[in-house]
Design goal:
The protein is an alpha+beta fold. It is built from 7 helices and 14 strands. Helix content is about 20%, strand content about 30%. Strands 5, 6, 7, 8, 9, 10, 11, 12, 13 and 14 form a 10-stranded mixed β-sheet that branches.
């Protein structure tokens, strides 16, 4: 077998016809990748396995033993695996869940190509793998702002329920191109054939840009970005719905207010504009 080039993407699935005593040795032998690259892929969540009568899970332990009949998937992308994510900031530890600031560039969850650039994995490492982590909601990879992470299944269900029932008040600060022509506006343009409502208040207009306070009543994919672009005011740095340039996405989730199911009272977490400006340079 010719070994893959150092920059080559490898995506392979294996079905074990016999048990394997050391999975990193076995993968190195059967893919042609150096063992060090295999270990990096495993540590960064790019190797998954499914044992007989079990669910898929990420396989991180290089010396793991796998039984006959197991399925292994390797998703090796050297560029992604070499990416060094920014560090999220723990704002408050509420015990059964925690509140974080997610910098831009970090995913909400991992994908098949790994999870080392996801806030879930980074939170797990922050707690030294002593706590479970469960997703509660999502935030675009290029966006920044507040995120909740649950640490047990019950808390995850309770918090997810609050989002699903629209019992969590969410606010965003967004800087867009152009001068916003009114102080306040309600946008009701359907997205993907479904109702979508975005409420906008202009906070300031500077140098042909506008800083907006945005709240959404629905949660469609890229709703804020699509609605603002539809009105001719794409978010600064939005290569998908605006103009591609070197600027970061100027969109941040800055406020979460909700009845806390753990503490039994209403709580509010809010970021100042100064907290996010450093990431908008």
């Amino acid at each position: 077998m010719n070994p893959p080039r150092a920059d080559q993407i490898v995506k392979q699935t294996f079905q074990l016809s016999e048990s394997v005593e050391n999975i990193s040795d076995w993968l190195a032998s059967n893919t042609g990748l150096a063992k060090g690259r295999i270990k990096l892929a495993m540590a960064n969540g790019a190797v998954q396995c499914k044992k007989p009568q079990a669910k898929w899970q990420r396989l991180r332990r290089a010396t793991a033993r796998l039984p006959k009949g197991s399925t292994i998937q390797l998703f090796y992308n050297p560029v992604l695996l070499a990416t060094k994510p920014s560090s999220p900031e723990l704002l408050e530890d509420c015990g059964r869940y925690s509140v974080w600031f997610k910098p831009p560039g970090i995913m909400s969850q991992g994908n098949e190509w790994g999870d080392h650039c996801s806030i879930l994995r980074l939170a797990e490492l922050h707690f030294k793998n002593a706590r479970q982590v469960f997703p509660v909601h999502r935030l675009d990879q290029d966006a920044s702002g507040l995120m909740l992470i649950a640490h047990d299944k019950k808390s995850a269900a309770l918090l997810s329920g609050l989002f699903a029932e629209r019992k969590i008040e969410k606010s965003y600060r967004v800087r867009v191109e152009g001068t916003w022509d009114s102080n306040q506006q309600r946008i009701e343009v359907p997205l993907d054939g479904r109702r979508a409502v975005t409420n906008v208040k202009c906070l300031e207009c500077v140098a042909d840009t506008s800083l907006l306070l945005v709240e959404i009543e629905t949660g469609r994919k890229h709703q804020i970005r699509r609605h603002l672009s539809h009105l001719g005011h794409p978010v600064l740095g939005d290569a998908l719905y605006g103009v591609k340039n070197s600027q970061p996405l100027h969109l941040a989730a800055t406020k979460l207010s909700y009845p806390c199911p753990v503490q039994g009272r209403s709580v509010t977490f809010e970021l100042s504009i100064d907290h996010i400006k450093a990431y908008w340079q």
